[in-house]
Write a structure and sequence with these properties.
33% of the residues lie in helices and 36% in strands. About 16% of the residues have low confidence. Bound molecules: copper (II) ion.
Length: 115
């Protein structure tokens, strides 16, 4: 009878220590998530293309294939980040650019004119 109780106690202690480890790991993960803004976790893709249209909010680019996204070459619109200084954009300009997925479509991260 006594050994049965000891056994039970050991099992309870083992369960307790496992859940303590899990809690510690969870805190560790949360700490990592909080130290990094969500925007920085979105993958950034790189491509090159030719500017087809420019508005204050967006730019249309006829871009090359993007293997990372399984995209063929196409012309599409990218949102321009607000409050970020980008070089003056002109239709017909060749650009090297990076972008990431945003709440509503894709947004330019950086854009460099090519010569
Ligand atoms: Cu595209």
């Amino acid at each position: 009878m006594r050994s049965y109780l000891l056994c039970l106690l050991a099992a309870v202690l083992a369960t307790l220590s496992v859940s303590t480890v899990q809690a510690a790991e969870m805190n560790h993960t949360m700490h990592h998530d909080m130290s990094q803004p969500a925007a920085m976790q979105a993958p950034v893709y790189h491509s090159q293309g030719i500017i087809k249209k420019v508005t204050p909010q967006a730019v249309s680019i006829s871009h090359q294939a993007i293997p990372d996204l399984n995209w063929p070459p196409m012309t599409m619109q990218f949102a321009l980040p607000q409050g970020v200084d980008l070089p003056e954009l002109q239709v017909g300009q060749k650009v090297d650019f990076t972008f990431s997925q945003h709440e509503r479509g894709y947004q330019i991260v950086s854009l460099t004119p090519q010569h």
